[in-house]
Design a protein that fits this description.
The complex is a heterodimer. In chain A, β20 and β21 form a beta hairpin. Chain A contains 20 helices and 23 strands. In chain A, α15 packs antiparallel against α16 and α15 (417-444) crosses α17 (489-507). Chain A has five domains: 4-131, PAS domain (Beta-Lactamase); 151-265, PAS domain (Beta-Lactamase, 2-Layer Sandwich); 285-386, PAS domain (Beta-Lactamase), CATH 3.30.450.20; 413-480; 482-637, 2-Layer Sandwich (Heat Shock Protein 90), CATH 3.30.565. In chain A, 44% of the residues lie in helices and 25% in strands. In chain A, the strands form five sheets. In chain A, strands 6, 7, 8, 9, 10 and 11 form a six-stranded antiparallel β-sheet that branches. Chain A has a five-stranded antiparallel β-sheet with strand order 2-1-5-4-3. Chain B is an alpha/beta fold. Chain B is built from nine helices and five strands; from the N terminus they run βαβαβαβαβααααα. The longest helix of chain B is centred in the middle third of the chain and has 34 residues, at 110-143. Chain B is elongated and about 75 Å long. Classes of the chains: A alpha+beta, B alpha/beta. Chain A binds chain B through residues 418, 421-422, 425-434, 436-438, 440-441, 444, 446, 455, 458, 461-462, 504-506, 508, and chain B through 14, 16-17, 19-21, 23-24, 26-28, 58-61, 85-87, 106-110, 113.
Chain lengths: 637, 204
């Protein structure tokens, strides 16, 4: 150890001892500094030199306080003097953590222990120093991480409670305080039982003990049964808990993480209830509901469906929906179902369904598709509405309507009877006259049979004419089923006008025919359409008879796109607004002898033909009634 | 004036009816003329026409009643038989009130028609005879002098020649001369006949 020999003050005298000391000092891991009783450095070992950045010569003989930052530097001499005077130990023989100062002025924490040596000729102190910067940092890290952990524990949403092996609470976080309504200070040290309802306590304790024995680090608590918590106010609530265990120096610690699942339980309950409601709706719905998978296999059928279809659950489970549909309707129904499934939209179709006993019924099926989030169809819901009653009612209504129109026709013709009788009388009179003239001429010899050919020809013509009238009448009067077939509107109108002409004789009105060149056929019951036109023409006459305002009724036909129109225009006084509103009402009439069914029957006839009946004021100030009928498609050809 | 022969005028817009009636009447030897439009008949009407009128009550342009009214205005003496259809009885009554002679409801029996027409024609003939006689009387009456008419009226009233002479301030003899002349001019032989003539004139 070069240069140290000069410091005779504190160095041992014997060279052997000196060498040993030097070797010892330099081999030491810790910094070692020797000072004399006045505080001057007598030795400064290699470790100290590395630690402080001084070489020994820079330090030897100088006050050790140079190695200290303020305030220690100025106070050090005072410590030393006081110790030597009073013997009061502050550091010597005790050791403490202090701050040291390097040559470059930087400071660092050290663990310092000081020893005193005293011989006859020598008295001094030895300081052993250990840089504890790293230890300090590690401690700081531990402190920080522990603060962070407790921050996490305290800010956790879940309640966290740790208990020791005696099941006394050692940790109780903020969420736990809130959950149980108990400050941590009151909870710590308490048995965990305090937060468990009485009835569960025994079982709970043994559960935790058993868990401790398994050595498994973590698992959920409770299993199938919900765990209940007990608040300090005595109320209970459901919790979801998991438990973990760790061995510490203090023994086994269990940590329980708890979540209040009151809300989740409520939601589950609501869900369960709504599912139950849905099930009840399904089971008790008055309409038949079938659930099928997208490919048609039946997965559920409510009691109404089972009753309607006359099949039990087991029978239905083996079937596809299409199996239930009457064979002739199956293809069309399948097409509707397929379209609904592909588009995901609702659909409906009419078809017949078959019961297990072979009987059939008409039904309207509403189809609805339930799809997943990606739009893939999951299930098909079919509501099957039995239409047989409705169809029967419709058929009955149709029959009534048909009867009413027939009665209406008879009524109309009844009103026309004098005109018609006149029309039949004319040819009959002529026939009778011609015949008796022939007879007389033959009898009296005024004529020979061959002279009478012309007259006989006249007789046939008149007979034919009478026959025409009767035929037209019989057509209108005959009670018969409605027959829809393609009809030439012009022909229908023309025939009606012939009948109407009988009445013109009395009235002196003009009846003008203006027919479209070529009209497409309409699918109609010819007699009913004639009934409507006849009614409208007779109304026109009546309108003009009420007030002598004009003398012309024009009946025209025309084609408007896919519609064929029949118009009956009169030159009467028009229809007052008060009457117009109620014109099509049954039993509304302005005529003394009318019963007020004519126009309402007309309207119902035209409606049944998917057409419309309207009226408007025309250029003559009279009224024009307009019948619109859809043209029949060419496919009827 | 039996110059124009009796003709049955048939007015009916229904050609077949008019034609067949005409033929039926022809078969019993009656002359006929048919008109489809009553206005045509009205235009061609002459007071000299003799016979009867068969008229359809219902016609579009002019009703039978209307035509009857027009003819009455023209003092037409032709008897009218209305032909009515079913349910036209009220119209027929109206027609009778307006002076129609008869009505027939279609379809009618041929004998019935012929009988009624013939009766109408007879009646017309009689009427025409009465009319002719009355015209004759009027014509003769017009030939009398003022004094002769005065004397004739008093004689017809039943005054004796003496009374007439005193009242008119003439001699009885002169009255007798007037009387003989009046009978001669009026073409009667007895006073009774003259009285009837004068009554006829007073009726008119």
């Amino acid at each position: 150890m070069p240069g140290t020999s000069q410091s005779s003050i504190s160095a041992p005298r014997t060279p052997v001892a000196q060498t040993r000391l030097t070797a010892l000092l330099d081999a030491a891991v810790d910094a070692m500094i020797l000072i004399d009783e006045r505080g001057r450095v007598t030795r400064f070992n290699a470790a100290a030199q590395r630690l402080f950045g001084y070489v020994e010569d820079e330090v030897l003989g100088r006050n050790v306080s140079m190695l200290m930052p303020d305030p220690y530097r100025t106070e050090h001499d005072g410590y030393l003097e006081r110790y030597q005077r009073t013997g009061e130990r502050r550091i010597i023989g005790i050791g403490r953590e202090v701050v040291a100062r390097r040559k470059d002025g930087s400071t660092f924490p050290i663990d310092l222990s000081v020893g005193e040596f005293r011989t006859e000729e020598d008295h001094g102190y030895v300081g052993i120093l250990r840089d504890i910067t790293q230890r300090r940092q590690a401690e700081e890290q531990i402190r920080e991480s522990s603060a962070r952990l407790s921050g996490i524990i305290d800010s956790a949403m879940d309640a966290i409670i740790s208990i020791d092996a005696d099941q006394r609470i050692v940790l109780f976080n903020a969420a736990a305080e809130k959950m149980f309504g108990c400050p941590a200070a009151q909870a710590i040290g308490e048995p965990i039982d305090r937060f468990i309802p009485q009835r569960f306590r025994g079982a709970h304790r043994s559960h935790i003990d058993r868990f401790g024995e398994t050595g498994v680090s973590r698992r959920a608590m409770g299993g199938a049964r919900p765990i209940m918590g007990l608040r300090t106010d005595g109320s209970e609530f459901p919790i979801d808990a998991s438990i973990s265990q760790a061995e510490t120096q203090g023994g086994k610690v269990f940590t329980v993480i708890l979540r209040d699942i009151t809300q989740r339980k409520q939601q589950e309950e609501q869900l369960r209830r709504s599912e139950e409601n849905l099930r009840l709706v399904f089971e008790n719905a008055p309409t038949a509901i079938l659930i099928t998978e997208p490919r048609g296999r039946i997965t559920a059928a409510n009691p109404a469906a089972r009753a309607l279809l006359g099949r039990d659950v087991e029978a239905l489970a083996e079937l596809r929906q299409s199996d239930l549909i009457f064979e002739e309707d199956r293809a069309a129904a399948a097409e509707h179902m397929r379209a609904a499934v592909e588009s995901g939209r609702q659909g409906e179709f009419e078809s017949r369904y078959c019961r297990s006993d072979g009987s059939c019924f008409h039904a309207l099926t509403h189809v609805s598709i339930a799809s997943d989030a990606e739009g893939q169809p999951l299930i098909v819901i079919s509501e099957i509405v039995d239409r047989s009653a409705l169809l029967e009612a419709t058929a009955e209504a149709e029959q009534l309507r048909s009867r009413l129109t027939h009665v209406g026709r008879i009524g109309t013709l009844g009103e026309m009877v004098s005109g018609i009788a006149h029309e039949v009388n004319q040819p009959l009179t002529a026939i009778a006259n011609y015949a008796s003239a022939c007879r007389r001429m033959l009898m009296s010899g005024q004529a020979r049979p061959e002279d009478l050919g012309g007259t006989l020809e006249k007789i046939s013509q008149q007979a034919e004419r009478a026959g025409d009238v009767i035929r037209g009448l019989r057509n209108l009067l005959r009670k018969r089923d409605e027959v829809r077939k393609p009809q030439d509107v012009n022909q229908l109108v023309h025939e009606v006008m012939r009948l109407s002409e009988f009445e013109l004789r009395q009235s002196g009105f003009r009846l003008v025919e203006a027919l479209a060149q070529r009209a497409p056929p309409v699918l109609a019951d010819g007699v009913q359409i004639q009934q409507v036109v006849l009614n409208l023409i007779r109304n026109a006459f009546d309108a003009m008879a009420q007030r002598a305002s004009g003398d012309m009724v024009q009946v025209s036909t025309r084609v408007d796109g896919d519609w064929v129109e029949i118009q009956v225009a009169d030159s009467g006084p028009g229809i007052p607004a008060s009457v117009a509103e109620r014109l099509f009402e049954p039993f509304f009439t302005t005529k003394a002898q009318g019963i007020g069914l004519g126009l309402s029957i007309c309207k119902s006839i035209i409606k049944a033909h998917n057409g419309s009946l309207q009226f408007s004021t025309n250029a003559w100030g009279g009224t024009t009634f307009q019948v619109r009928l859809p043209a029949a498609h060419e496919e009827t050809k | 004036m039996s110059s124009s022969p009796q003709t049955v005028y048939i007015v009916d817009d229904e050609e077949a009816v008019a034609d067949s009636i005409a033929m039926l009447l022809k078969s019993v030897g009656l002359a006929t003329r048919t008109f489809a439009d009553p206005r045509d008949f009205l235009k061609q009407y002459q007071p000299e026409m003799s016979g009867c009128l068969l008229l359809d009550v219902r016609m579009p342009k002019m009703g039978g009643l209307e035509l009857q009214e027009e003819l009455n205005r023209k003092r037409c003496a032709l008897p009218v038989i209305f032909i009515t259809g079913h349910g036209d009885v009220p119209m027929a009554v109206e027609a009778m009130r307006a002076g129609a002679m008869d009505f027939l409801q279609k379809p009618f029996n041929d004998d019935e028609l012929i009988r009624r027409v013939q009766r109408a024609l007879e009646e017309e003939m009689q009427q025409r005879e009465v009319l002719r006689q009355r015209e004759e009387i009027e014509r003769r009456w017009a030939e009398l002098t003022e004094r002769e008419r005065e004397v004739a009226k008093r004689i017809a009233d039943g005054q004796a020649n003496k009374v007439v002479a005193i009242e008119l301030g003439i001699s009885e003899r002169t009255v007798e001369l007037h009387r003989a002349r009046i009978l001669e001019k009026m073409g009667v032989r007895s006073l009774a006949q003259l009285v009837r003539m004068i009554l006829t004139l007073q009726d008119a």
